[in-house]
Write a structure and sequence with these properties.
about 300 residues, Rossmann fold, seven-stranded mixed β-sheet, 10 helices, disordered N terminus, S-adenosylmethionine-dependent methyltransferase activity, EC 2.1.1.95
C-alpha cells in the first residue's frame, strides 16, 4: 500500500513525530502515550515505574473495551508499536498499524521483528482516513492517543464503522478538553498545547460520544481517566534529560532538527497546568458496530 499523506496538517504531524521519535523513546520507552496510576499513587522519583504505568494504560483500554483475544486489529496512530506488540503478543491478535510517520512505522516493524511477532504485527505509513482497506476488514479499531491529531473526527468515526465487521469493537483513548465554554485564559492554554503538539483542536469526551452515536455505533460509553493519567506530566517524574544540558543544547537541537522540535519540551508544563486546572481531560471510549438484525439506539 502506498502512503496517502497529503494535507498540511498530516505533513506537520508526520514531521513532528519523525524529528521527536528518539526523544519520546528515550523518555517513555516503547509507549508514546500516558501512564495509568491508581488514586493516590505517586510515581517513583527516578521514573522507573513509567514503563509499568504505560503498559498498564494499554491493559486498561483492552479491559474497558473488552478487546477479544485473537482479533484482527487496525491500530490507528500506532506510534513505534508498543500497544500493538501487546495486542499481538499477549492477546494473540493480528495487527495492522498505521501512522503518518515513516520513521515510526520503520521502528515499529523493527520492534515487532525483535519481539518475534512480525507475522502478526505490521506497520505502514498511511493516513488513517485513507488506508485502502476493504469494508469490514477488522474486528477491532484501536486508537490510543491518535484522534487528537485528526481534524475530521466525524470522518474518523465513519471510517471506523466502515472498517469494522458487524459486532466489531471501537476502542479509543484520547486527550480531551472540559465540556462547555472556556474563559480567555483557558482558551489560550489550550491554544498553546495545540500549537506545540501539532493538533488541530480538542473535543470533549461528551463530544466524542455524540460523534460515535451519530456515526451509527451502539453500546457507546466513555470513562474519564484524567486523574489516573495526570502523573504522566509530574515535573519530578517526566524528566527530559536534554533540559539538564542547558540552553546551548536546546539551540543545537533546534539547528539540527528545526525549531518544531522544541514543542516536545514545552508540552510538559502546559499539560500539567491543563490537568491541574481541569481544562485538559483524558478518557476512553468504547463502542460497537451494530449487527444487521440489531435495533438502533435511541
Amino acid at each position: 500500500m502506498e502512503p496517502t499523506i497529503g494535507s498540511g496538517l498530516n505533513t506537520a504531524v508526520e514531521r513532528y513525530y519523525d524529528i521527536t521519535l528518539d526523544l519520546y523513546e528515550d523518555l517513555w520507552g516503547e509507549h508514546v502515550h500516558h501512564g495509568f496510576w491508581d488514586p493516590g499513587e505517586v510515581p517513583g522519583p527516578d521514573g522507573a515505574d513509567r514503563h509499568a504505568a504505560t503498559d498498564r494504560l494499554v491493559r486498561e483500554l483492552v479491559d474497558y473495551a473488552a478487546v477479544p483475544a485473537g482479533s484482527r486489529v487496525l491500530d490507528v496512530g500506532c506510534g513505534i508499536g508498543g500497544p500493538a506488540l501487546h495486542l499481538a503478543g499477549a492477546l494473540g491478535c493480528t495487527v495492522e498499524g498505521v501512522t503518518l510517520s515513516a520513521r515510526q512505522a520503520a521502528r515499529a516493524n523493527e520492534k515487532a521483528r525483535a519481539a518475534g511477532v512480525a507475522e502478526r504485527a505490521r506497520f505502514h505509513q498511511l493516513d488513517a482516513l485513507g488506508t485502502g482497506y476493504p469494508d469490514e476488514s477488522f474486528g477491532v479499531v484501536w486508537a490510543l492517543e491518535s484522534l487528537m491529531h485528526i481534524a475530521d473526527r466525524q470522518g474518523f468515526f465513519a471510517e471506523a464503522l466502515r472498517l469494522l465487521g458487524p459486532g466489531g469493537t471501537l476502542a479509543v483513548a484520547t486527550w480531551s478538553v472540559r465540556d462547555g465554554e472556556l474563559d480567555e485564559d483557558e482558551r489560550e492554554l489550550v491554544r498553546q498545547i495545540l500549537l506545540h503538539q501539532v493538533m488541530p483542536d480538542f473535543s470533549s469526551l461528551e463530544e466524542h460520544e455524540r460523534l460515535a452515536r451519530a456515526a451509527g455505533f451502539t453500546d457507546v460509553a466513555t470513562v474519564d481517566w484524567s486523574g489516573a493519567v495526570a502523573n504522566s506530566w509530574d515535573p519530578g517524574f517526566a524528566q527530559i534529560r536534554e533540559f539538564e544540558r542547558g540552553p546551548a543544547a536546546m539551540r543545537d537541537l533546534a539547528r539540527e532538527r528545526g525549531v518544531d522540535v522544541l514543542g516536545f519540551f514545552h508540552a510538559g508544563p502546559l499539560m500539567k497546568k491543563g490537568f491541574d486546572t481541569g481544562v485538559i481531560t483524558y478518557g476512553a471510549l468504547r463502542a460497537t458496530k451494530p449487527r444487521p438484525d440489531s435495533r438502533p439506539e435511541r
